[in-house]
Design brief:
With 525 residues, the protein is an alpha/beta fold. It contains 23 helices and 9 strands. Strand 8 (508-511) and strand 9 form a beta hairpin.
Length: 525
Protein backbone atom coordinates (compact mmCIF):
# COMPACT_ATOMS: atom_id res chain seq x y z
CA UNK A 1 0.00 0.00 0.00
CA UNK A 2 2.80 2.41 0.95
CA UNK A 3 4.75 1.46 -2.17
CA UNK A 4 1.72 2.09 -4.37
CA UNK A 5 1.17 5.47 -2.72
CA UNK A 6 4.84 6.36 -3.25
CA UNK A 7 4.84 5.35 -6.90
CA UNK A 8 1.63 7.24 -7.55
CA UNK A 9 3.26 10.55 -6.61
CA UNK A 10 5.69 12.47 -8.76
CA UNK A 11 7.28 15.92 -8.61
CA UNK A 12 6.12 18.65 -10.95
CA UNK A 13 2.57 17.33 -11.13
CA UNK A 14 3.65 14.39 -13.28
CA UNK A 15 1.28 11.43 -13.07
CA UNK A 16 2.62 7.96 -12.38
CA UNK A 17 0.49 4.98 -13.27
CA UNK A 18 1.05 1.44 -12.05
CA UNK A 19 0.66 -1.10 -14.80
CA UNK A 20 -0.05 -4.77 -14.27
CA UNK A 21 2.12 -5.70 -17.25
CA UNK A 22 5.66 -4.48 -17.77
CA UNK A 23 5.94 -1.86 -20.49
CA UNK A 24 8.88 -1.91 -22.89
CA UNK A 25 11.31 1.03 -22.79
CA UNK A 26 9.88 2.37 -26.07
CA UNK A 27 6.47 2.83 -24.43
CA UNK A 28 7.98 4.63 -21.48
CA UNK A 29 10.00 7.00 -23.65
CA UNK A 30 7.01 7.85 -25.81
CA UNK A 31 4.86 9.03 -22.91
CA UNK A 32 5.81 12.67 -22.27
CA UNK A 33 3.15 13.40 -19.64
CA UNK A 34 2.87 10.08 -17.82
CA UNK A 35 5.29 7.62 -16.37
CA UNK A 36 4.00 4.06 -16.62
CA UNK A 37 5.65 1.94 -13.98
CA UNK A 38 5.07 -1.62 -12.90
CA UNK A 39 6.65 -3.26 -9.91
CA UNK A 40 7.69 -6.13 -12.14
CA UNK A 41 9.26 -3.76 -14.63
CA UNK A 42 11.11 -1.87 -11.89
CA UNK A 43 12.48 -5.11 -10.50
CA UNK A 44 13.50 -6.13 -14.00
CA UNK A 45 15.33 -2.85 -14.56
CA UNK A 46 17.07 -3.08 -11.21
CA UNK A 47 18.24 -6.60 -11.94
CA UNK A 48 19.50 -5.63 -15.39
CA UNK A 49 21.32 -2.56 -14.10
CA UNK A 50 22.79 -4.47 -11.17
CA UNK A 51 24.32 -6.94 -13.60
CA UNK A 52 26.02 -4.11 -15.50
CA UNK A 53 27.21 -2.57 -12.23
CA UNK A 54 28.75 -5.88 -11.24
CA UNK A 55 30.45 -6.26 -14.63
CA UNK A 56 31.86 -2.75 -14.47
CA UNK A 57 33.01 -3.23 -10.89
CA UNK A 58 34.65 -6.59 -11.55
CA UNK A 59 36.44 -5.58 -14.75
CA UNK A 60 37.61 -2.15 -13.61
CA UNK A 61 38.28 -3.50 -10.12
CA UNK A 62 40.62 -6.19 -11.46
CA UNK A 63 42.35 -3.77 -13.83
CA UNK A 64 42.88 -1.20 -11.10
CA UNK A 65 43.89 -3.79 -8.51
CA UNK A 66 46.68 -5.26 -10.66
CA UNK A 67 48.00 -1.85 -11.79
CA UNK A 68 47.55 0.02 -8.49
CA UNK A 69 50.46 2.00 -7.07
CA UNK A 70 51.59 -0.21 -4.16
CA UNK A 71 53.14 2.52 -2.01
CA UNK A 72 54.59 6.00 -2.35
CA UNK A 73 55.84 7.44 -5.62
CA UNK A 74 54.79 9.22 -8.81
CA UNK A 75 54.82 12.68 -7.16
CA UNK A 76 54.96 14.38 -3.80
CA UNK A 77 51.29 15.32 -3.62
CA UNK A 78 50.33 11.65 -3.82
CA UNK A 79 52.50 10.76 -0.82
CA UNK A 80 51.06 13.72 1.07
CA UNK A 81 47.46 12.68 0.40
CA UNK A 82 48.39 9.17 1.48
CA UNK A 83 49.00 10.22 5.08
CA UNK A 84 47.03 13.44 5.61
CA UNK A 85 43.73 11.63 6.04
CA UNK A 86 45.07 9.45 8.81
CA UNK A 87 46.59 12.32 10.82
CA UNK A 88 43.84 14.82 9.90
CA UNK A 89 46.22 17.37 8.45
CA UNK A 90 45.71 20.06 5.81
CA UNK A 91 47.39 20.10 2.39
CA UNK A 92 48.04 23.01 0.04
CA UNK A 93 45.24 25.29 -1.15
CA UNK A 94 42.35 24.98 -1.39
CA UNK A 95 42.53 22.48 1.48
CA UNK A 96 40.40 19.65 -0.01
CA UNK A 97 38.46 18.91 3.21
CA UNK A 98 35.99 16.57 1.45
CA UNK A 99 38.74 14.26 0.27
CA UNK A 100 40.75 14.44 3.50
CA UNK A 101 37.75 13.53 5.67
CA UNK A 102 36.65 10.73 3.32
CA UNK A 103 40.21 9.41 3.22
CA UNK A 104 40.38 9.49 7.03
CA UNK A 105 37.32 7.28 7.44
CA UNK A 106 38.36 4.89 4.68
CA UNK A 107 41.93 4.27 5.86
CA UNK A 108 40.66 3.95 9.44
CA UNK A 109 37.99 1.37 8.58
CA UNK A 110 39.64 -0.62 5.78
CA UNK A 111 41.76 -3.24 7.51
CA UNK A 112 44.19 -4.49 4.83
CA UNK A 113 47.44 -3.15 3.43
CA UNK A 114 49.72 -0.24 4.21
CA UNK A 115 48.41 3.27 4.69
CA UNK A 116 49.65 4.21 1.20
CA UNK A 117 47.97 1.20 -0.40
CA UNK A 118 44.64 1.92 1.30
CA UNK A 119 44.71 5.55 0.18
CA UNK A 120 45.50 4.50 -3.38
CA UNK A 121 42.72 1.92 -3.29
CA UNK A 122 40.22 4.58 -2.28
CA UNK A 123 40.76 6.36 -5.61
CA UNK A 124 40.11 3.13 -7.52
CA UNK A 125 36.85 2.49 -5.65
CA UNK A 126 35.65 6.06 -6.23
CA UNK A 127 36.38 5.74 -9.96
CA UNK A 128 34.33 2.55 -10.15
CA UNK A 129 31.36 4.29 -8.52
CA UNK A 130 31.78 7.10 -11.06
CA UNK A 131 31.41 4.55 -13.84
CA UNK A 132 27.96 3.65 -12.45
CA UNK A 133 26.77 7.25 -12.80
CA UNK A 134 28.20 7.46 -16.30
CA UNK A 135 26.38 4.23 -17.16
CA UNK A 136 23.07 5.66 -15.95
CA UNK A 137 23.69 8.91 -17.85
CA UNK A 138 24.18 7.09 -21.15
CA UNK A 139 21.11 4.96 -20.46
CA UNK A 140 19.12 8.15 -19.93
CA UNK A 141 20.34 9.54 -23.24
CA UNK A 142 20.14 6.41 -25.37
CA UNK A 143 18.21 3.71 -23.51
CA UNK A 144 20.93 1.25 -24.57
CA UNK A 145 22.51 -0.58 -21.66
CA UNK A 146 25.19 -2.30 -23.71
CA UNK A 147 26.39 0.98 -25.18
CA UNK A 148 26.29 2.47 -21.68
CA UNK A 149 28.46 -0.39 -20.44
CA UNK A 150 30.97 0.03 -23.27
CA UNK A 151 31.08 3.79 -22.69
CA UNK A 152 31.59 3.52 -18.92
CA UNK A 153 34.23 0.82 -19.26
CA UNK A 154 36.06 2.86 -21.88
CA UNK A 155 36.12 5.95 -19.66
CA UNK A 156 37.70 3.92 -16.88
CA UNK A 157 40.47 2.90 -19.28
CA UNK A 158 41.40 6.16 -20.98
CA UNK A 159 44.89 7.22 -19.95
CA UNK A 160 44.25 10.03 -17.45
CA UNK A 161 41.24 8.43 -15.78
CA UNK A 162 43.02 5.11 -15.37
CA UNK A 163 46.22 6.74 -14.11
CA UNK A 164 44.58 8.91 -11.46
CA UNK A 165 42.47 5.97 -10.30
CA UNK A 166 45.65 4.25 -9.13
CA UNK A 167 47.00 6.80 -6.66
CA UNK A 168 45.89 8.90 -3.71
CA UNK A 169 44.67 12.07 -5.40
CA UNK A 170 41.54 14.23 -5.42
CA UNK A 171 40.75 13.81 -9.11
CA UNK A 172 38.77 10.58 -9.02
CA UNK A 173 36.48 12.10 -6.37
CA UNK A 174 36.14 15.18 -8.57
CA UNK A 175 34.93 12.96 -11.42
CA UNK A 176 32.43 11.26 -9.12
CA UNK A 177 30.98 14.67 -8.27
CA UNK A 178 30.94 15.73 -11.93
CA UNK A 179 29.37 12.51 -13.21
CA UNK A 180 26.68 12.49 -10.53
CA UNK A 181 25.79 16.17 -11.05
CA UNK A 182 25.39 15.64 -14.79
CA UNK A 183 23.29 12.54 -14.19
CA UNK A 184 20.92 14.14 -11.68
CA UNK A 185 20.45 17.23 -13.83
CA UNK A 186 19.55 15.08 -16.84
CA UNK A 187 17.32 12.96 -14.62
CA UNK A 188 15.61 16.08 -13.30
CA UNK A 189 14.95 17.25 -16.85
CA UNK A 190 13.12 14.00 -17.55
CA UNK A 191 11.35 13.47 -14.23
CA UNK A 192 10.84 17.09 -13.06
CA UNK A 193 11.13 15.75 -9.51
CA UNK A 194 12.42 18.23 -6.94
CA UNK A 195 14.46 15.46 -5.33
CA UNK A 196 16.67 15.14 -8.42
CA UNK A 197 17.14 18.91 -8.54
CA UNK A 198 18.12 19.09 -4.88
CA UNK A 199 20.50 16.15 -5.26
CA UNK A 200 22.20 17.89 -8.17
CA UNK A 201 22.47 21.13 -6.18
CA UNK A 202 23.72 19.46 -3.02
CA UNK A 203 26.33 17.34 -4.78
CA UNK A 204 27.51 20.32 -6.80
CA UNK A 205 27.83 22.46 -3.68
CA UNK A 206 29.79 19.77 -1.85
CA UNK A 207 32.08 19.28 -4.85
CA UNK A 208 33.73 22.61 -4.06
CA UNK A 209 35.08 21.09 -0.88
CA UNK A 210 37.11 18.71 -3.03
CA UNK A 211 38.39 20.66 -6.04
CA UNK A 212 37.49 23.98 -7.63
CA UNK A 213 37.64 22.51 -11.14
CA UNK A 214 33.89 21.90 -10.91
CA UNK A 215 33.33 25.65 -11.24
CA UNK A 216 33.54 24.95 -14.97
CA UNK A 217 30.07 23.37 -14.77
CA UNK A 218 28.32 26.42 -13.38
CA UNK A 219 27.06 27.81 -16.71
CA UNK A 220 25.81 24.39 -17.82
CA UNK A 221 24.04 24.00 -14.48
CA UNK A 222 22.35 27.40 -14.87
CA UNK A 223 21.32 26.57 -18.44
CA UNK A 224 19.73 23.28 -17.44
CA UNK A 225 17.73 24.97 -14.68
CA UNK A 226 16.56 27.67 -17.10
CA UNK A 227 15.69 25.18 -19.86
CA UNK A 228 13.95 22.71 -17.54
CA UNK A 229 12.02 24.92 -15.14
CA UNK A 230 13.01 28.57 -15.24
CA UNK A 231 10.59 29.47 -12.45
CA UNK A 232 13.15 27.81 -10.17
CA UNK A 233 15.16 31.03 -10.28
CA UNK A 234 12.44 32.90 -8.40
CA UNK A 235 10.94 30.02 -6.43
CA UNK A 236 11.51 31.14 -2.81
CA UNK A 237 11.34 27.62 -1.40
CA UNK A 238 13.90 26.25 -3.83
CA UNK A 239 16.18 29.24 -3.39
CA UNK A 240 16.06 28.77 0.37
CA UNK A 241 16.82 25.05 0.15
CA UNK A 242 19.70 25.66 -2.27
CA UNK A 243 21.18 28.34 -0.02
CA UNK A 244 20.98 25.96 2.93
CA UNK A 245 22.76 23.28 0.88
CA UNK A 246 25.48 25.78 -0.05
CA UNK A 247 25.96 26.78 3.59
CA UNK A 248 26.07 23.14 4.64
CA UNK A 249 28.63 22.39 1.93
CA UNK A 250 30.76 25.40 2.89
CA UNK A 251 30.78 24.19 6.49
CA UNK A 252 33.26 21.53 5.32
CA UNK A 253 35.91 24.22 5.41
CA UNK A 254 35.36 24.50 9.13
CA UNK A 255 37.70 21.50 9.12
CA UNK A 256 40.59 23.85 8.28
CA UNK A 257 39.64 26.19 11.13
CA UNK A 258 39.42 23.22 13.52
CA UNK A 259 42.84 21.90 12.54
CA UNK A 260 44.36 25.38 12.65
CA UNK A 261 43.76 25.70 16.41
CA UNK A 262 45.47 22.40 17.21
CA UNK A 263 48.48 23.34 19.36
CA UNK A 264 50.40 20.26 18.21
CA UNK A 265 49.39 19.65 14.58
CA UNK A 266 50.61 16.56 12.77
CA UNK A 267 50.85 18.45 9.48
CA UNK A 268 49.28 21.83 8.71
CA UNK A 269 50.24 23.27 5.34
CA UNK A 270 47.49 25.91 5.24
CA UNK A 271 45.65 27.44 8.17
CA UNK A 272 42.36 29.31 8.39
CA UNK A 273 43.94 32.72 7.76
CA UNK A 274 45.62 31.49 4.57
CA UNK A 275 42.31 30.08 3.41
CA UNK A 276 40.43 33.34 4.10
CA UNK A 277 43.03 35.25 2.10
CA UNK A 278 42.57 32.73 -0.70
CA UNK A 279 38.82 33.35 -0.65
CA UNK A 280 39.28 37.12 -0.75
CA UNK A 281 41.41 36.80 -3.87
CA UNK A 282 38.90 34.27 -5.28
CA UNK A 283 41.79 31.95 -5.97
CA UNK A 284 42.86 34.10 -8.91
CA UNK A 285 46.50 33.73 -8.04
CA UNK A 286 46.41 30.23 -9.50
CA UNK A 287 45.28 31.54 -12.89
CA UNK A 288 48.33 32.33 -14.93
CA UNK A 289 47.07 32.62 -18.51
CA UNK A 290 45.22 35.44 -20.21
CA UNK A 291 42.74 34.96 -23.04
CA UNK A 292 45.29 35.59 -25.80
CA UNK A 293 47.52 32.87 -24.38
CA UNK A 294 44.55 30.55 -23.99
CA UNK A 295 43.68 30.69 -27.67
CA UNK A 296 47.22 30.80 -29.05
CA UNK A 297 48.95 28.34 -26.74
CA UNK A 298 46.52 26.48 -24.54
CA UNK A 299 43.84 25.40 -26.99
CA UNK A 300 46.38 23.47 -29.10
CA UNK A 301 47.39 21.72 -25.88
CA UNK A 302 43.75 20.75 -25.26
CA UNK A 303 43.47 19.28 -28.77
CA UNK A 304 46.66 17.35 -28.09
CA UNK A 305 45.09 15.99 -24.91
CA UNK A 306 42.02 14.93 -26.90
CA UNK A 307 44.18 12.94 -29.27
CA UNK A 308 46.28 11.40 -26.48
CA UNK A 309 43.15 10.28 -24.63
CA UNK A 310 40.92 9.11 -27.49
CA UNK A 311 43.24 8.30 -30.38
CA UNK A 312 41.41 6.99 -33.45
CA UNK A 313 38.05 7.19 -31.66
CA UNK A 314 38.16 10.97 -31.43
CA UNK A 315 36.11 11.31 -34.67
CA UNK A 316 33.45 9.02 -33.16
CA UNK A 317 33.13 11.42 -30.20
CA UNK A 318 32.79 14.34 -32.60
CA UNK A 319 30.03 12.49 -34.47
CA UNK A 320 28.27 11.77 -31.19
CA UNK A 321 28.29 15.46 -30.25
CA UNK A 322 26.07 16.18 -33.25
CA UNK A 323 23.86 13.09 -32.97
CA UNK A 324 22.24 13.80 -29.60
CA UNK A 325 18.59 14.21 -30.53
CA UNK A 326 17.30 16.29 -27.63
CA UNK A 327 18.22 19.95 -28.15
CA UNK A 328 18.40 20.77 -24.42
CA UNK A 329 20.57 17.75 -23.64
CA UNK A 330 22.86 18.56 -26.58
CA UNK A 331 23.26 22.17 -25.47
CA UNK A 332 23.74 21.24 -21.82
CA UNK A 333 26.59 18.83 -22.59
CA UNK A 334 28.17 21.31 -25.00
CA UNK A 335 28.21 23.99 -22.29
CA UNK A 336 29.69 21.44 -19.84
CA UNK A 337 32.46 20.77 -22.35
CA UNK A 338 33.18 24.40 -23.17
CA UNK A 339 32.89 25.71 -19.62
CA UNK A 340 35.13 23.02 -18.12
CA UNK A 341 37.65 23.43 -20.95
CA UNK A 342 37.93 27.20 -20.60
CA UNK A 343 38.28 27.09 -16.81
CA UNK A 344 40.92 24.34 -16.91
CA UNK A 345 42.82 26.15 -19.67
CA UNK A 346 43.32 29.13 -17.34
CA UNK A 347 45.11 27.02 -14.74
CA UNK A 348 48.86 26.72 -14.56
CA UNK A 349 50.67 23.74 -16.05
CA UNK A 350 51.62 21.13 -13.47
CA UNK A 351 52.57 17.49 -13.78
CA UNK A 352 48.99 16.33 -13.25
CA UNK A 353 47.62 18.98 -15.60
CA UNK A 354 45.74 16.46 -17.76
CA UNK A 355 43.69 15.60 -14.66
CA UNK A 356 42.24 19.12 -14.75
CA UNK A 357 40.54 18.12 -17.99
CA UNK A 358 38.93 14.93 -16.72
CA UNK A 359 35.47 16.59 -16.62
CA UNK A 360 36.02 17.51 -20.28
CA UNK A 361 37.03 13.94 -21.10
CA UNK A 362 33.90 12.72 -19.31
CA UNK A 363 31.70 14.69 -21.71
CA UNK A 364 33.78 13.48 -24.65
CA UNK A 365 33.19 9.89 -23.55
CA UNK A 366 29.44 10.53 -23.39
CA UNK A 367 29.72 11.79 -26.96
CA UNK A 368 31.69 8.64 -27.78
CA UNK A 369 28.81 6.50 -26.50
CA UNK A 370 26.31 8.42 -28.63
CA UNK A 371 28.59 8.10 -31.64
CA UNK A 372 29.01 4.36 -31.13
CA UNK A 373 25.24 3.96 -30.82
CA UNK A 374 24.69 5.87 -34.06
CA UNK A 375 27.36 3.96 -36.01
CA UNK A 376 26.26 0.56 -34.69
CA UNK A 377 22.68 1.21 -35.76
CA UNK A 378 23.82 2.28 -39.18
CA UNK A 379 26.50 -0.31 -39.94
CA UNK A 380 25.88 -3.20 -37.55
CA UNK A 381 22.36 -4.11 -38.54
CA UNK A 382 22.31 -7.44 -36.76
CA UNK A 383 22.08 -7.28 -32.99
CA UNK A 384 24.78 -9.89 -32.50
CA UNK A 385 27.28 -7.75 -34.40
CA UNK A 386 26.98 -4.97 -31.81
CA UNK A 387 29.03 -7.20 -29.50
CA UNK A 388 31.99 -6.19 -31.66
CA UNK A 389 31.96 -2.86 -29.85
CA UNK A 390 33.78 -4.55 -26.99
CA UNK A 391 36.86 -3.89 -29.10
CA UNK A 392 36.69 -0.22 -28.00
CA UNK A 393 37.57 -0.67 -24.31
CA UNK A 394 39.93 -3.52 -25.26
CA UNK A 395 41.78 -1.09 -27.54
CA UNK A 396 42.20 1.44 -24.70
CA UNK A 397 43.31 -1.28 -22.31
CA UNK A 398 46.01 -2.57 -24.65
CA UNK A 399 47.12 0.92 -25.67
CA UNK A 400 47.40 2.40 -22.19
CA UNK A 401 48.41 -0.55 -20.02
CA UNK A 402 52.19 -0.23 -20.31
CA UNK A 403 52.12 3.55 -19.78
CA UNK A 404 49.72 3.46 -16.84
CA UNK A 405 50.73 0.36 -14.85
CA UNK A 406 52.12 1.51 -11.48
CA UNK A 407 52.29 -1.88 -9.80
CA UNK A 408 56.10 -2.01 -10.05
CA UNK A 409 56.76 1.59 -9.02
CA UNK A 410 58.61 0.73 -5.83
CA UNK A 411 61.95 2.49 -6.20
CA UNK A 412 61.06 5.51 -4.05
CA UNK A 413 59.67 3.33 -1.27
CA UNK A 414 62.82 1.21 -1.32
CA UNK A 415 65.15 4.23 -1.17
CA UNK A 416 63.33 5.92 1.71
CA UNK A 417 63.02 2.69 3.68
CA UNK A 418 66.74 1.96 3.25
CA UNK A 419 67.59 5.45 4.48
CA UNK A 420 65.34 5.20 7.52
CA UNK A 421 66.58 1.70 8.36
CA UNK A 422 70.14 3.02 8.17
CA UNK A 423 69.58 6.05 10.41
CA UNK A 424 67.02 4.30 12.64
CA UNK A 425 66.59 7.12 15.19
CA UNK A 426 67.51 10.70 16.08
CA UNK A 427 68.42 12.55 12.93
CA UNK A 428 67.44 15.18 10.37
CA UNK A 429 67.26 14.23 6.69
CA UNK A 430 67.55 17.20 4.33
CA UNK A 431 66.35 16.66 0.76
CA UNK A 432 66.60 18.83 -2.33
CA UNK A 433 63.10 18.55 -3.74
CA UNK A 434 59.46 18.63 -2.73
CA UNK A 435 58.71 15.07 -3.85
CA UNK A 436 61.25 13.41 -1.58
CA UNK A 437 60.25 15.65 1.30
CA UNK A 438 56.72 14.27 0.96
CA UNK A 439 58.01 10.70 0.63
CA UNK A 440 59.86 11.04 3.93
CA UNK A 441 56.92 12.80 5.57
CA UNK A 442 54.73 9.84 4.65
CA UNK A 443 56.93 7.52 6.70
CA UNK A 444 57.80 9.94 9.49
CA UNK A 445 54.29 11.29 10.05
CA UNK A 446 51.95 8.76 8.46
CA UNK A 447 53.79 5.63 9.56
CA UNK A 448 54.97 7.17 12.88
CA UNK A 449 58.72 6.98 12.25
CA UNK A 450 58.95 10.47 13.77
CA UNK A 451 58.45 8.85 17.14
CA UNK A 452 62.08 7.71 16.76
CA UNK A 453 63.26 11.32 16.75
CA UNK A 454 63.56 11.57 12.98
CA UNK A 455 62.74 14.67 10.90
CA UNK A 456 62.93 15.64 7.26
CA UNK A 457 62.37 18.74 5.16
CA UNK A 458 63.55 20.27 1.86
CA UNK A 459 66.70 22.37 1.85
CA UNK A 460 64.59 25.41 0.94
CA UNK A 461 63.40 25.46 4.57
CA UNK A 462 66.86 26.37 5.85
CA UNK A 463 69.44 26.59 3.05
CA UNK A 464 73.13 25.69 3.23
CA UNK A 465 73.78 28.37 5.83
CA UNK A 466 70.93 27.02 7.94
CA UNK A 467 72.51 23.57 7.97
CA UNK A 468 75.84 25.04 9.03
CA UNK A 469 74.18 27.14 11.77
CA UNK A 470 72.32 24.08 13.06
CA UNK A 471 75.51 21.97 13.22
CA UNK A 472 77.24 24.80 15.09
CA UNK A 473 74.40 24.81 17.63
CA UNK A 474 73.45 28.38 16.80
CA UNK A 475 69.95 28.00 15.35
CA UNK A 476 67.46 25.11 15.31
CA UNK A 477 65.57 24.07 12.20
CA UNK A 478 61.94 25.15 12.09
CA UNK A 479 59.59 22.44 10.83
CA UNK A 480 56.83 24.60 9.42
CA UNK A 481 54.03 21.99 8.89
CA UNK A 482 54.17 21.04 12.59
CA UNK A 483 54.80 24.57 13.87
CA UNK A 484 57.77 23.48 15.96
CA UNK A 485 61.55 23.67 16.16
CA UNK A 486 63.70 20.60 15.60
CA UNK A 487 65.84 20.03 18.73
CA UNK A 488 69.49 21.05 18.42
CA UNK A 489 72.20 18.42 18.48
CA UNK A 490 70.72 15.83 16.11
CA UNK A 491 72.92 14.44 13.33
CA UNK A 492 72.18 15.93 9.89
CA UNK A 493 71.97 13.80 6.76
CA UNK A 494 71.49 14.72 3.11
CA UNK A 495 70.36 12.66 0.14
CA UNK A 496 72.84 11.80 -2.60
CA UNK A 497 71.29 14.49 -4.81
CA UNK A 498 72.69 17.18 -2.49
CA UNK A 499 76.18 15.68 -2.36
CA UNK A 500 77.86 18.19 -4.66
CA UNK A 501 76.13 21.21 -3.16
CA UNK A 502 77.22 20.28 0.37
CA UNK A 503 80.78 19.48 -0.69
CA UNK A 504 81.12 22.80 -2.51
CA UNK A 505 79.95 24.60 0.64
CA UNK A 506 82.98 23.43 2.60
CA UNK A 507 81.15 20.98 4.84
CA UNK A 508 82.24 17.36 4.97
CA UNK A 509 80.24 14.32 3.88
CA UNK A 510 80.59 11.04 5.72
CA UNK A 511 79.51 7.70 4.28
CA UNK A 512 76.66 5.87 6.01
CA UNK A 513 77.17 2.55 4.25
CA UNK A 514 74.52 3.10 1.58
CA UNK A 515 74.76 5.31 -1.52
CA UNK A 516 71.55 7.23 -0.93
CA UNK A 517 72.39 9.14 2.25
CA UNK A 518 75.42 10.93 3.73
CA UNK A 519 76.03 12.43 7.13
CA UNK A 520 77.07 16.08 7.16
CA UNK A 521 79.82 17.33 9.48
CA UNK A 522 81.63 20.62 9.97
CA UNK A 523 85.32 20.68 8.96
CA UNK A 524 86.54 21.18 12.53
CA UNK A 525 84.74 17.98 13.66
Amino acid sequence: MLLSKFLSTSGGGEAVTLQSDPQPPEVLRNQPNHKYISIEYLNHVLRRHLLWYVLLSVILGLVYWFTLLPGIGVMGDVAKFQFLGKVLGTPHLSGYPTYIILNHFFVSLFPKGTLAFRSNLLSAIISIVSSWFLFETVVLLLGNRFIAFITSLTFGLIHSMWLFSLMAEVYSLNILFTASVIFFLLQWKKSRKDLHFYLACGIYAFSFGNHLITIGLIFAFAFMVWATKRSTFWDFKKILVVLLLILLAFSQYGYIAWRSIDPNPAFIEIDWFTFIHFLKSMGLSSRTFNFNEIFSERLPLLFLYFWQEFYIFLPVSIIGAFKIKDRIEKTFLAICLIGSSLFSLTLGVVREHSAFFLPVFLVMVIYLGVGLDYLSKRFLKQRKLSALLIIVPVFFFLTNYSNVDLSEKKIHSEIVEKVLNTIRHDGVVVVDEYDYACYFWYYLIGESYQKNGLYSFPISYAGIDGIRAYLQGEKPFYFMPQRKFVPLGLPVYVLWTLKDKISNSGMILESTGIKYIYRVRLPEE
